[in-house]
Structure formats: C-alpha cells, structure tokens
Amino acid sequence: MKVREKLVLYTHPNCDYSPMKKNELDNDGIDYDEIDLSLLPQYWVEIEKICKGGRITPILINLDGSPEIGYQGIGSDFS
C-alpha cells in the first residue's frame, strides 16, 4: 500500500455525516486534506472503486492507504 503524508477526507455537502467526521478529526487535532465531491466530481471514480460501485461519503483515506467508509459505519449513499 502507498504511504501518504496526510489523511484524505472525501466529503459531500448533502451528506449529514461529512461534517460529523470533519468535526471529529478537527476536535482530535488531526490534519487532513478535504476533497469536496460537489466541487471535484471527477473524484467519484475513486469513490466508486473504494465502495465497489457505490457513492458513499464520508470516506477517510488513512496514511497507509486503507479506507474508512462512512462515519462510525454510517454514510450517505449517492448512487
């Protein structure tokens, strides 16, 4: 797996769970790059690969490249 320098968080403004995940990371003082899928829709292709065809947010990509899908196991599905 590719090791990253920073966490990446995929979000969408119509997802109620995206701000919850952002708040959790911010409150824990964790640095991350955010990709807002409403502004950068070309990244949906990556989301679909991670979610096996689904369009779920939020998704956090850890430093080791492993994904965490949803917020505490729950996410918004834009399929």
Q: Count of helices?
A: 2
Order of helices and strands: EHEHEEEE
Shape: globular
What's the pLDDT, averaged over the residues?
Answer: 92
Question: How many strands?
Answer: 6
The span between the termini is: 27 Å
Class from secondary-structure proportions: alpha+beta
Uncertain runs: none
Strand content: 25-35%
Reported for the largest beta sheet, the result is:
4 strands, mixed
Radius of gyration using CA atoms only: 12 Å
Domain count, please report it. 1
The largest sheet has its strands arranged as 2-1-4-5
What proportion of the residues is helical, as a percent range? 10-25%
Please describe what this structure looks like.
It is a single chain. The chain contains two helices and six strands, in the order βαβαββββ. By secondary structure, the protein is of the alpha+beta class. It has one domain (15-77). The strands form two sheets. It has a four-stranded mixed sheet with strand order 2-1-4-5, covered by helices on one side. Strands 3-6 form a two-stranded antiparallel ribbon. A hairpin with a 5-residue loop joins strand 4 and strand 5 (67-69). The longest helix is centred in the first third of the chain and has 11 residues, at 17-27. The protein is globular.
Produce the secondary structure layout.
Elements: E1 7-11, H1 17-27, E2 32-36, H2 44-50, E3 56-57, E4 59-61, E5 67-69, E6 76-77
Parallel strand pairs: 1-2
Antiparallel strand pairs: 1-4, 3-6, 4-5
Q: Which structural traits does this protein have?
A:
about 80 residues; about 25% strand; 4-stranded mixed beta sheet; two-stranded antiparallel sheet; alpha+beta
